[in-house]
Amino acid sequence: MKNQLPPGQFETEKWPVLHQGDVYAFNKETWKFRLFGEVKEEVSLSFDDVMALPKTVSTIDMHCVTTWSKFATTFEGIALREFLSLTSLNEDVKFIKIYGYYNGDPFGYSANLPLDRLLGDDALFVYRWKDNDRDWEDISPKHGFPLRFIPPASFYLWKGTKWVSGIKFMKEDEEGFWEELGYSMTADPFKEDRYR
Ligand SMILES: Nc1nc2c(c(=O)[nH]1)N[C@H]1C(S)=C(S)[C@@H](COP(=O)(O)O)O[C@H]1N2
Ligand SMILES: [Mo]
C-alpha cells in the first residue's frame, strides 16, 4: 500500500511536526525502555541494549489525521517484533500500548494498537530517516529523538508515539492519549476512521 492517498488527505513534501507538550530532552543515563503488562517477566532496556538489536530499513507512508500525508520516507530502526524475542508474552495478548514522554512524564503519552498487525517491516522504532530531498539524518528532537515509533500506513500517525519509553502488552484493548479524547481505537486512514 505505497503512495496511495487515503480519502480526505492531501500530499505534503515536508514533514510537519505535531504533538502535545514539551519536546523531550534525551538523557542516556536515565533513558529506559520497558516491556511490561502481560509478560512473564518485565524487561528494562538501556539505550545501548535497544541499539544492539537487529536493524530494519523500510519506506513507510505517513498519514496524519489533520489531513496531510507524506510518501516515500525511508526509515531505519528496530522492528517491533525484535522486542518480542526479549520476553515471553502471557497467553491471549492481542493489543499493545506504546508509551512515550509527555511534559516530563515518561508514560504520559500512549497509543493502542493490535499486535498482529505490527509484526512486519513496516512497524518500526526509528532513529534516522531520509527521503527524496535529503540523505540520512537523525530523527530530530521535535520528531521524537532518540527513538520514536512509526506505525504501518494502515494507521493514522498519532499511533506513532514519539520519545518512546516502553510497550505494554494487553489482552483487552485500552484507550491511549488521543483515544480517551474521542479519536478512533482502530484509526484506519483508508476508511477515514478518525473518531469513535
Ligand atoms: N510522545 C508523543 N508522541 C506523539 C504525540 C505526542 O503528543 N506525544 N503526538 C502524536 C501525533 S497526534 C502525531 S500526528 C504524530 C506526529 O509526528 P511528527 O510530529 O513526527 O509528524 O506524533 C504522535 N506522537
Ligand atoms: Mo495528530
From TrEMBL:
Residues 22-178 form the Oxidoreductase molybdopterin-binding domain. This is DMSO/TMAO reductase YedYZ, molybdopterin-dependent catalytic subunit. It comes from Salipaludibacillus aurantiacus.
